[in-house]
Amino acid sequence: MFSKSSLEMLDTVARLGSFTAAAEQLHKVPSAISYGVRQVEQELDVVLFRRLPRKVELTPAGELFIEEARLLLRQMEEVKAQTKRAAHGWQKTLKVTLDNVVKLEKMKPMIEAFYEKFDFAELQINMEVFNGSWEAISQGRADIVIGATSAIPVGGDFEVRDMGRLDWAFVMSPSHACVREQNLTEEFVSQFPAICLDDTSNVLPKRHTGHYVSQRRLLLPNWYSAIECLKNGVGVGYMPRHIAMPLIESGLLVEKILPDDTPLSQCCLVWRKDDNHKMIEWMVDYLGSSQQLHQDWLEH
Fold first, then answer.
1. Can you tell me whether residue 235 is helix, strand or coil?
2. DSSP conformation letters of 123-179
3. First to last CA, the chain
4. Which of 7, 145, 212, 234 could form a disulfide with 270 if both were Cys (CB 3.0 to 4.6 A apart)?
5. Rounded distance, CA 69 to CA 80, Å?
6. pLDDT in tens, 199-217
7. What is the pTM of this model?
8. Which residues contact 28 (CB under 8 A, 6 or more apart)?
9. Residue 95 pLDDT grade (very low, low, confident, very high; cuts 50, 70, 90)
10. Which helix (H) or strand (E) holds 99?
C-alpha cells in the first residue's frame, strides 16, 4: 500500500515537524513533500498532520500510523539484510538437537560463543531420546545432533563424526532390595520395573536402555524424572555413567554389577550437508575433534 520511500518521508516529517525541514533533508522541494503527505492521507482517508503556521504536528491517528510505519521500516531492513545473508549462506536460525545422554555443562559456553559470533542469528536447541535424534536430522527438525547413539538407522545427506563410547552404570536406591542381594540374577532383577527413557521417535523403531526381556519397563521422558524414580526406589536401571557418578558418590544411588556385559553406546555428532548454511560449518568446527566431543559431552 505504501512504498518504503513514502514511509521514510512521513517519518522524516514527523521527526522534524516541518515540510520545509523534511524537504531539505530529503533533497526535495517543500511542495513535493506536502503533496506526498496529502496523497497518503487521501489513501487512508485520515488526517495525519495538523498544519500550523510554522510547523506540522501529528494527530492521534498520525501518531499511531507513524509508530507502525517505523516498525514496518525496521522489518523491511531486516528482510533485506536476511535475504543478503541467505544469498551468502548465512541463515537466521541454527537448529541443534542434544541427545538426552549428553552432559549439559558445555551448553552454556556453546551458546555464548554462538551469540557472540552471530549478531543476527538465533540458536534453537531441542532434546531427543535415542532414535528421536536420528528422526530429527532426517526430517529436517535438526541441523546438528550432538550425541546420536547406536548405528545409523536412516539414510540422508548428512555427515557423521565419532564421539566415542558412552558407558552405562546399573543403579538403584540405597534402600532397594537389589542392594542387599549379593549376586544379582536376571530372575531376581526382573521382579522390579526397569527405569527406561522413552524413545522420542514417531516413525523409526523405538530403542530403550538395557533391560531384561521379562522385565516390565517404566518409560520416562528424561533423566530428571528417571533420577527421581531411582532415588525413591521405584525401579532399577542403566544410566549414563557421567550422570550417575555424582549421585553414586553422594550416596543417593548405588551401582551394582550384573552378570551380563554392561551395555556400551557408540555416540556421534551428525550434521546436515548444506553448502548454503555456513553456521552448520561454524558449529561443527567449534565443537571440535572426536576426542574433544567425547571429553565435553560424554566423559565423567
1. coil
2. EEEEEE-THHHHHHHHTTS-SEEEEEESS--S--SEEEEEEEEEEEEEEE-TTSHHH
3. 60
4. 145
5. 16
6. 999 888 888 777 888 899 9
7. 0.69
8. none
9. very high
10. strand 93-99
